[in-house]
Write a structure and sequence with these properties.
This protein is mainly alpha-helical. The protein has one domain: Orthogonal Bundle (Multidrug-efflux Transporter Regulator, Chain: A, Domain 2), CATH 1.10.1660.10. It is about 65% helix and about 5% strand. The chain contains five helices and three strands, in the order βααββααα. Strands 1-3-2 form a three-stranded antiparallel β-sheet. α1 crosses α2. It is globular and about 50 Å long. The two termini are about 25 Å apart. About 15% of the residues are buried.
Length: about 110
């Protein structure tokens, strides 16, 4: 899944939820369930997600929403082979970006 977020140091939970097309409560729930998510909190307690957090959310989203893993299954998969999952996800992400660029080129030629 390709998300469309501008390059920033921190993202608010609303921005992240909108990028993933889920509710903010969904993001908070995943934060409680997956210890890999550790957003910073400001003085008001608002969550601020880094780009690393967003990448981790992409992996969780991919496993749970796209691959159909249960939460427990996704947790086990991430603990089992965390480096392999991240590498595979990055490869899939790059291939999706290449595919979208090729589609743009095809549409411009037509």
């Amino acid at each position: 899944m390709h998300i469309n977020l501008p390059e920033k140091r921190y993202y608010k939970i609303g921005e992240v939820a909108k990028a993933f097309n889920v509710n903010t409560s969904h993001i908070r729930f995943w934060e409680k369930e997956f210890d890999i998510l550790k957003p910073k909190k400001n003085k008001k307690g608002n969550r601020l997600f880094t780009q690393v957090d967003v990448k981790n959310l992409q992996i969780i989203y991919h496993l749970v929403k796209e691959k159909g893993f249960t939460l427990e299954g996704a947790k086990a998969k991430m603990k089992e082979k965390p480096k392999a999952i991240k590498d595979n996800f990055e490869i899939i992400d790059r291939l999706e970006n290449i595919k979208s660029e090729l589609i743009k080129i095809k549409n411009n030629l037509a």
